[in-house]
Amino acid sequence: xxxxxxxxxxxxxxxxxxxxxxxxxxxxxxxxxxxxxxxxxxxxxxxxxxxxxxxxxxxxxxxxxxxxxxxxxxxxxxxxxxxxxxxxxxxxxxxxxxxxxxxxxxxxxxxxxxxxxxxxxxxxxxxxxxxxxxxxxxxxxxxxxxxxxxxxxxxxxxxxxxxxxxxxxxxxxxxxxxxxxxxxxxxxxxxxxxxxxxxxxxxxxxxxxxxxxxxxxxxxxxxxxxxxxxxxxxxxxxxxxxxxxxxxxxxxxxxxxxxxxxxxxxxxxxxxxxxxxxxxxxxxxxxxxxxxxxxxxxxxxxxxxxxxxxxxxxxxxxxxxxxxxxxxxxxxxxxxxxxxxxxxxxxxxxxxxxxxxxxxxxxxxxxxxxxxxxxxxxxxxxxxxxxxxxxxxxxxxxxxxxxxxxxxxxxxxxxxxxxxxxxxxxxxxxxxxxxxxxxxxxxxxxxxxxxxxxxxxxxxxxxxxxxxxxxxxxxxxxxxxxxxxxxxxxxxxxxxxxxxxxxxxxxxxxxxxxxxxxxxxxxxxxxxxxxxxxxxxxxxxxxxxxxxxxxxxxxxxxxxxxxxxxxxxxxxxxxxxxxxxxxxxxxxxx
Length: 590
Prior knowledge:
The protein is an alpha/beta fold. 14% of the residues lie in helices and 30% in strands.
């Protein structure tokens, strides 16, 4: 089965949404739940201005907020409807500010009453730029932008205005939407030096595979499968019970499948969350083939493969990024099951929230039906192995639409953790300015990757406890901008490239390619141009060569650059000659 999904301007992967209060794993990872940290100082008010798709005013788990509009469509700021007909702003705001009130989720502000929210509804680049300007003119202390694009000019006028203020701009580093795209591409406004660029991690404190890794990343925060409020009635939730009892507190982060149906006849891709409940025996599918006992029971299976793309799109009635969205493989392995629980594999052990694309089946005469009409949920490896110990017992798996809560993934949801923590810290140390708060967050980040600053996590994962302790003991620190990330000089010389014709394989000419450089680099990028075709990426990685298979009677150009964190080297271009390998197919192999 193949996959398809569209992208958003918003820096998020689509949300799906659960409900009694559940403290997201992110509070522990960021140490925002440390009891030694006081709640926000009630005598010092902090204003957070959120530029996003809207806010569900009146949600029982969100504080009262103010708002205004820059978007020209989809209702006012209290109508959280994004350009993709999804929602976004309510989930972003919930990460910061969901109330600590024994229901739903809990925001990183821990219910602080003196942290004020103002939502500016904006969805496209020009609206977002003007929304940032509006926030500055309102005198906001912190601006959260969980959106953007790769055009610096789209936001330049707003960024120029930041020079005149003591405002902290926090922005999502951006998501890598497509395979073979450069993961170090800039994403604005986060990639401006004046912005605090936030990358995403998963529940294992590892860099999220979709999170852009570039020289502008400053800090990281949890962004994968974040439990947060959704607009009332538009969330999607899941639960698991063993012998009629909910799992223990701490083991309840269960992500319902982010399911889309794909119609092979029309190419139509439709969000199709499944609403239903199954009670049956729990069967652990631990081998390469599931036992027959999974039939009509609940199949617990390790994730077969991890996605290498975070979004795909149908192209007509064919797939784009075929086989890169692979959740269907885990479901298909459980063929005949009444429900499926997928737990993370060792390569990506944390809680994940991949897409499940359900290829509709032509049952007769172009009458297509979906195949996965049953509950499918995702859990962490830790929870999956816990459930494996319950195999043979009665279990209930439920997925339900119409909730007020749910799970969301993307750097969009990492940024508000930083905004919320910054607001909480700033209210406790109101004499510090924006530069000093920013510096304190960066210098106290948890260097989870080791080795200091890197493109994946910047300085590391934001650490609320360490930042609070530092400011409490040492004060605000120097009143100056934070130091820029370490600079690395791009390779200065073009790679050496050698080519050699290696004969014909049937009608296909073969060439041995090799490339090298004496400089310190991270790898090579090799592009090809076959005849009149456009240039395209052929290889990116650390290998020093490859066997290249050309086209018969076609001249091919090969272009090679080396690269590191500082950029690309000058390129070397070579031409592979046109070779006539005849018209006979290769002999059969016995």
